[in-house]
Amino acid sequence: MTKKAVVLLSGGLDSATCLAIAKSQGFDCFCLSLDYHQRHIAELQAANKVAMTLGATAHKTAQLDLSLFGGSALTDNAINVPESGANPIPAGIPVTYVPARNTIMLSLALAWAEVLQAQDIFIGVNALDYSGYPDCRGEYVEAFQQMANLATKSAVEGQKITIHAPLIELSKAEIIHLGIQLGVDYAMTVSCYQADGHGHACGKCDSCRLRREGFIQANIKDPTRYKLA
């Protein structure tokens, strides 16, 4: 019997690779995206393409307006997205951190997993390239898994939940190489924090910079579509 997994899918490079990994491990993949009124809404269009192309069994997009709270450059128009340029990415938690986002997304994935009677959830968090986000650390994933197995009917009845974070210790270049091996077309993905409505990247934000450097280090041509100057 084929195993089911819920895969969190943002439409970016990491989550697309994470879906490809889950598929390669034989899971029927039920992809979940979140429309939280983020600036880079084009990533949701990318998520649809990625889910379809990589053969997801189903794809749902939940609606939850986190701009009601703001507090992040991705949800609050009063906070500018940093454009690093030639400067190093600053230390500390950046303003692009969305309060509790991964906790919210994993909770939604957990709810769907229970309904599906799935015991596996995949999330494409990565701590090595950019460890500024507190909810991208291994100890956070482990803690959420422990909570999930205390808080759900399925787990209490013996159907334990596993949270998979297969990219957590990989560099961006390693993620790209793995995705290429698994057939991911990264031209479909959108990683930019302020991509336009057509999915064109700014080329200036921290996410664009990390993505571009990853392709350079991987020695693979960057397929990202950038905005015209």
Word description of this protein:
By secondary structure, the chain is α/β, with parallel strands linked by helices. It has one domain (4-218): HUPs (Rossmann fold), CATH 3.40.50. It is built from seven helices and five strands, in the order βαβαβαβααβαα. A five-stranded parallel sheet has the order 3-2-1-4-5, with helices on both faces. Helix 6 crosses helix 7 (206-218). The longest helix has 16 residues, at 101-116. The termini are far apart. The mean pLDDT is 93.
Share in helix:
25-40%
Molecular shape: globular
DSSP summary, beta strand count? 5
Q: Widest sheet: strand order? A: 3-2-1-4-5
Give the distance, in angstroms, between the N- and C-terminal Cα atoms.
52 Å
Strand-and-helix sequence, N→C?
EHEHEHEHHEHH
Mean of pLDDT: 93
As residue ranges, the low-confidence spans are none
What is the CATH first-level class name? Alpha Beta
Strand content: 5-15%
Features:
Rossmann fold, 7 helices, single chain, about 230 residues, alpha/beta, 5-stranded parallel sheet
Set down the secondary structure blueprint.
Blueprint: E1 4-8, H1 13-24, E2 28-35, H2 42-53, E3 58-63, H3 101-116, E4 120-122, H4 138-151, H5 153-156, E5 162-164, H6 172-181, H7 206-218
Parallel strand pairs: 1-2, 1-4, 2-3, 4-5
At a glance:
With about 230 residues, the protein is of the alpha/beta class. The protein has helices at about 15-25, 40-55, 100-115, 140-150, 155, 170-180, 205-220; strands at about 5-10, 30-35, 60-65, 120, 160-165.
